[in-house]
Amino acid sequence: MTLLDDFNAADRQECLNLLLACVAIPRWAAEVADGRPYEDARAVAQRARQAADPWTAEELDAALSRHPRIGERAEGSEADAAHSQREQAGVATADTEVLQRLAEGNKAYEERFGQVFLIRAAGRSPEEILEALEERMTNDPQTERRVLAEQLREIAVLRLQGALQ
Question: What is the Cα–Cα distance from 110 to 105, expressed in whole angstroms?
Fold first, then answer.
């Protein structure tokens, strides 16, 4: 039996718990849980992406309020902290200059946009994250909200795929 089989066979609350550990947005979790049974991992990812499109402004704000700054330890639930630590593992190996520039960039981003910088960090080097942060500083607020929503979709899908592997 695979993890996907377990997910399909689990009771709704177990599924919701797994999904909320990926991204704590109840509507999204319910839509994905209620789409069971899934034929394969691709179908789960497709449903997760669809359920996240679009995130409401409130959902996006709630997710951002729980997200740690790049390069900082996550607070909150054990699941949130564990996900962030895995996703930002590459940042831990960054040199001092890059870490300093990330810290300064985080602060400038928050001053400009009034929220934490969110990016799918998994699979990206510290330098790539820094480059993206610097590029996104040129976005207008509406464009940046769309970018944030897409990044949160990517994070949600990647976390769910990881949980079902």
Answer: 8
The total domain count for the chain is 1
Those residues whose C-beta lies under 8 Å from the C-beta of residue 60, and which sit 6 or more positions away, are: 145, 148, 149, 152
Rg (CA), the chain: 16
Are residues 33 and 15 in contact, defined by beta-carbon separation less than 8 angstroms? yes
114 close to 63: Cβ distance less than 8 angstroms? no
Rounded mean pLDDT of the chain?
90
Instruction: Report the CATH number at residue 102.
Output: 1.10.3330.10
Q: Is the dihedral of CA 2, 4, 5, 7 positive or negative?
A: positive
Tokens at 14, concatenated: 């177990």
Pick from 6-10, 20-24, 53-57, 88-92: least confident: 88-92
Q: What is the DSSP letter of 91?
A: G
CB atoms inside a 10 Å sphere around CB 131:
12
Q: Quick count: other Cβ atoms within 10 Å of Cβ 82?
A: 12
Name the residue range of residue 33's domain.
Answer: 3-163
Kindly tell me the sign of the dihedral angle through the C-alpha atoms of 68, 64, 83, 103. Answer: negative
Q: What is the pTM of this model?
A: 0.87
